[in-house]
Amino acid sequence: MDKHKKNNQKEKRVKRNLKTLLLGSPREITIPGSRFPNGTQNLVPVVDIQKGVLITEDGRYIKVLEIVPTNFYLKSRIEQQNIIYYFSCYLKIAPQSLQILVCTQRADIDAYCDQMEKYYNREKNENCKAMILEDAQLVNYLASYEAVTRRFYLIYEYKGEATEFTEISKELADQAETAYQYLDYCGLEVLRHDNYDEFLLRTVYTAYHKQSARNINFSALMEQVGPVFNTPEITEDQLEEEDSEGITTIQDVLAPTEADLEHSKYILIDGVYHAYLYITGYSYPTERGLAWLSPLIELGDGISLSFFLEKKRKEQILSKVVKTTMINRSRLRDIEDIRADYEELDDAIYSGMYIKDRLNRDGEDFFYMHTLIEVTALDETTLNKRIKQVQNLCVSMDMTARRADWCHEQCFRSMLPIAKLDMDIAKRTQRNVLTSGAAGAFPFSSFELCDNKGVLMGINLHNNSAVIVDNFNSDIYSNGNLAIFGMSGAGKTYTLLLLAMRLRMCGVQVFIIAPEKGFEYRCACEAIGGQFLRLSPGSEDCINLMEIRRSTLDIDSNLANNIQRNDSVLLSKVQDLHTYIRLRYPQITPEEAYQLNIAILECYESFGITKDNRSLLNPDGSFKAMPDFTHLYSCLLKYPSLKNVALAVKEIIDFGMGGQTNVDLFSSFIVLDTSGAKKKDISSSTFVATSFIRDELSRSRTRKKAVLGDELWVIAGEEGNEQAADFIIEMVKLIRGYGAIFVSATQNTLDYFALRDGKFGDALLNNSRLKLLLQMEEAEAIKLQEKLGLSDEEVMQVVRCGRGQGLLCAGKNRIGIEIRSSQTEYELITTNRTDLEKREARTDTAEL
Fold it and tell me: Which superkingdom heads the taxonomic lineage of this protein's source (predicted)?
């Protein structure tokens, strides 16, 4: 038994020695002051993060930019060429060494389901709870296809001569601004993270902890890390007791729990298998199409890519090219043309002349490029399957992808976002390329849109993956507003109401303005416990416009360390009432307007309410009884000069719109149906709706809120109402400041841009980061092409779409989408006559 044990030990020792003989002894990194000098921290080359810069143990300073990709293949041929042109322009002035990292992993459907579980547990409405479960099941079903998320990074290091860190970080930031400008020309967006150090921590942490990173609170984690770089030395007697055993450094936080680096075909880090392949330098085809790296990027879950570019000085390269070409010419003279290597030498001479000509005459630069592919999986079988998938694709692209056996640790370090490629790997992967060829790789193309949290929109028509959009994620979208366009029957109302219901399920307070066919919202609204209000003459629903429902105008009164302001709520309400009455009685004179203000204040004073906000409340903290228009009418009769104003108020009362509030205004889902208003009353009905919504939005900036407006062409079309349109525009422009989003939907796109030369339509488009273009006629699609800068291919995709399908424009990223709902949601939303007939038949059967 002892002999067998000794043999095993000998085999293990031989195995380790073989790796050492082949690759040499690895350098043991010892961090001064580290509690674990030989632990897994050795795998972490980042020693600190400061001012948006990664600082490495070898004294380099790294900048990481996150790029929002574009759907390159939806661009026209001319647009594609322009993108490549501007990308090549950037490469000419970019830092000398670039790393472009594309990290792919399965979309965080678990996070979405966890989010829905929290909402399910909080929800009190049984119908809403049932739909939350159905939505979670639908997402899991869609995730069984290919629900992945990709993050794109541009990484470079500081190469200047500055020694002060402040100056170094400033120069890196200046280079980032240049990247923002040129990548914008390419149709790309560089994200400007609010907390850049936290973003860097999350990016590097995810490289080590692919499974657990999604569950980490990086804000809290960042607070635990102590500074290392530029920190003055502290003697032991100066340390506080809690720091006497050392501080927690970035390396401690980033280091994996365990790492098995002994295998030849993979390494195992925190339970995740990592294997690496590289494109051999000699196997790249001489000619490639545009965005030729995209197929590798789109391979799927667990397959990431790192693309390195290193620019060389022309003078240095030209002399080598000329010398090599002369030698090859001399050798060619001595070789017969029937020999196998004759063509190789002839091709080498041609390539040398081509490179020399392009460098001298066409202003091209010379680069070495390297392509490294990372494959990860939770088991070895899946790992090998994905490796085979990569190799097969590379063969189909006329390239050779070799496994980096015995070198996976070096490749792992090279895949980190620190712009450093292992020298041995660099030799195997090196391929020379000119600026145009490097730009032609264009690795910033993607077809997926799957935010970690948010609302399920439907499926991606390109790969059947789930499309989940988080409108409230300010890191991704400068604003979460969404504009929906489509012809009649394309599914606009269906999409709008589906989105409204799912926002409501996610705890978002929802308000819907329906100036046309508001009855389509009633069934769904009542099913999830919402409040349906019909704002028109003769309606039994009434909102008392004179009712004051908040005790302060200070929207930040609930925030800590804020001194509360005491601006008069009453005077703000008087201004709203004045606007409303002016809409009902446009001929009001300045004298009448002045007397009206006095009468309104007297009316409130009769209820014990003054300009002092404290007068709004009873001693127990509840709101006092509020006057309505019947009380105001009595006050107006005291003033003979307000006779005409009193008649306008009497009309409001007679139409049933002047009484006390008789509906639930604290519901989380409120539909304001203004479709019953006559043309002359559209402005006043819209004002009641927007005034109420603005009042509710102003209660807090922290609660998520959404305002949805359907068929807005009724308000803003050629025959629309300018005053009503102004109320909507004002709310859209300010809504982001209230922590809310605005979702609009309309048909008659041409009519939409007719009111005041398109002022309303342009305002909605300019303030909506997200656009959804459902099926529409070609003339309308061409109109939007001018407004949104769509390519001919994108226009044709919109025209060819079926019902419920469209083009989702999320910033500069555009994907084909099909709206999907659960069966329960479909039955509540559908306006299809056949479906409604079936529902009616079921109702008749139940009654029998």
Answer: Bacteria
- Tally of CB atoms within 10 A around 403: 20
pLDDT (tens digit per residue) in 257-295 = 888 888 999 999 988 999 999 999 888 887 778 888 888
The 3-state DSSP composition of the chain as helix, strand, coil percent (nearest 5) reads 50, 15, 35
Q: Are residues 547 and 436 in the same domain?
A: no
- Are 154 and 286 in a shared domain? yes
- Is the domain of 89 the same as that of 211? yes
Residue-level pLDDT at 13: 43
Range of the domain at 293: 36-107+147-231+246-441
pLDDT tens digits along 435-469: 988 999 999 987 777 776 788 888 888 777 778 88
Contact 55, 201 (CB under 8 A): no
Domain limit, last residue, from 386, 419, 441: 441
pLDDT at position 680: 78
Print the SS3 string covering 500-520. Answer: HHHHHHCCCEEEEEECCCHHH
- Residue 114 DSSP SS3: helix
Residue 800 in domain: no
pLDDT at 412 > cutoff 60: yes
What are the residues whose beta carbons fall under 8 Å from the beta carbon of 675, sequence distance 6 or more? 514, 515, 516, 517, 518, 519, 536, 714
Q: In what order do the strands lie in the sheet with 466-469?
A: 466-469, 455-460, 813-819, 805-810, 770-774, 482-485, 740-746, 705-709, 509-514, 669-673, 531-534
Q: What is the dihedral of CA 100, 104, 108, 110, to 10 degrees?
A: -150
299: in domain: yes
437 and 569 together in one domain:
no
CA 839/CA 824 separation, integer angstroms: 12
Rounded CA separation 447/442 (Å): 14
List, for residues 772-789, the tens digit of each pLDDT value: 999 988 888 888 887 777
Tell me if 430 is assigned to some domain.
yes
Note the pLDDT tens digit of each residue in 50-105: 999 999 998 999 999 999 888 787 777 788 889 999 999 999 999 999 999 999 87
Measured CA to CA, the distance from residue 667 to residue 674 in angstroms comes to 18
- From 421, 441, 461, give the residue that closes a domain: 441
Task: Kindly state the average pLDDT of the residues 812-839.
Answer: 83
Q: Are 551 and 420 part of one and the same domain?
A: no
- pLDDT top residue among 684 and 171: 171
d(CA 269, CA 411): 13
Sequence-distant (≥ 6) Cβ neighbours of residue 659 within 8 angstroms: 542, 544, 628, 629, 630, 653
Q: Work out how many domains the chain is built from and give that number.
A: 2
Domain membership flag for residue 338: yes
Beta bridge partners of 511: 670, 707
Query: Do the Cβ atoms of 728 and 690 come closer than 8 Å?
Result: yes
CATH at 609: 1.10.8.730
First to last CA, the chain: 85
